[in-house]
Amino acid sequence: MQQYKKYNNLVIFLSELRKSIRLLGISLMLVTVAIFFLSTGLITVFQEHLREKLYFFSVAGPFLAHVKVAFFGAVYALMPLLMYVLWKAMGKPFAVTGRKLFWFVFATCFLFYSGTLFCYFVTLPYGVEFLLSFQSESMKAVISIGRFVSFVTVFILAFGVIFELPVFMVFSAQVGLFSRQVFEKNRRFAVLGIAILAALLTPTPDVVNMALMGGPLYLLYEAGILVIRLLRIDEKRAAAKTEEKKQEDVKPEDIATLQDDGIND
Hints:
The structure is a single chain. The protein is mainly alpha-helical. It has twelve helices and two strands; from the N terminus they run H-H-E-H-H-H-E-H-H-H-H-H-H-H. Strands 1-2 form a two-stranded parallel sheet. The protein is globular and about 80 Å long.
């Protein structure tokens, strides 16, 4: 029965997500085309912020770099729509609608944009400065525009995604997938998972970039546990299960007796 319920929830999620795929695809394509005409200015902003000269080593290099920036800008601008579609599909099987849906979308977008800004103004300049500090008189950096754009955009988006961790932790506790005790007892496995995730998401495999991503991610993990505790989600779910069990324990003949008594009265 439990396995059937999980399968049914997955079907509902995929069915709800499929309804919005076309809208997301069209929106992403149109916004990408629109931002493409602004991509030169965006690349200039990145370049001046990090104070680096850029070069290209293939004929198509500059064009592909502009396409990457345009796509990045489209994803960045459409994040509220993407999060609304995702949370609407995820919340459908678990009856997460109305105000709860709004707060999940709002919190996710807020943390995403906070993560990207933190990366852009704090982590990214430090990471670039540290990595380029190893150049010398005999070894000068010549940065490809394609690699530069990939590095910056992936790093910023990755930071935005990992900053959303507390929201997904709260959601998992809300729907009964994981309790606060599970998160607390598995901190060491969380550290291992964070290290692996940081290695996969960072555009370069060096320890510095992994630490710049892994450190905030662990703090967010602890923040998620704290929010679950403050909202008393586990206690509320336990109380709801107890009430549901009491209702299930009521026998049909008892209900009939109560109804007869009410009629006689």
